[in-house]
Amino acid sequence: MRRRHKLMLLLAFEILVLGFTQAQLERPSRGISVETTVTPNHVVT
After folding, report:
1. Between these two residues, 4 and 41, which has the higher pLDDT value?
2. What's the rounded Cα separation, in Å, for the pair 17 and 11?
3. Looking at residue 1, what is its pLDDT?
4. pLDDT of residue 8
5. Are residues 34 and 44 in contact, defined by beta-carbon separation less than 8 angstroms?
6. Contacts of 36 (CB under 8 A, 6+ apart)
7. DSSP codes, 2-35
8. Range 24-32 average pLDDT
9. N or C: which end of the chain has fewer CB within 10 A?
10. 28 phi, psi to nearest 5 deg
11. CA-based nearest residue to 16, from 8, 6, 27, 26
12. In sequence order, what are the residues at sequence separation of 6 or more whose Cβ sits closer than 8 angstroms to the Cβ of residue 40?
């Protein structure tokens, strides 16, 4: 392989590692919590 191809493979690997570490550090939001109402037949939209 040429030196250029080796550098491109190394760069792709570093991007994957960087993306994986950032995904581990930033926790995704769990969603929206909706409180239920006590009014009968009331629909939350």
Report:
1. 4
2. 10
3. 77
4. 97
5. yes
6. 44
7. -HHHHHHHHHHHHHHHHHHHHHHHSPPP-----P
8. 72
9. C
10. -70, 155
11. 8
12. none
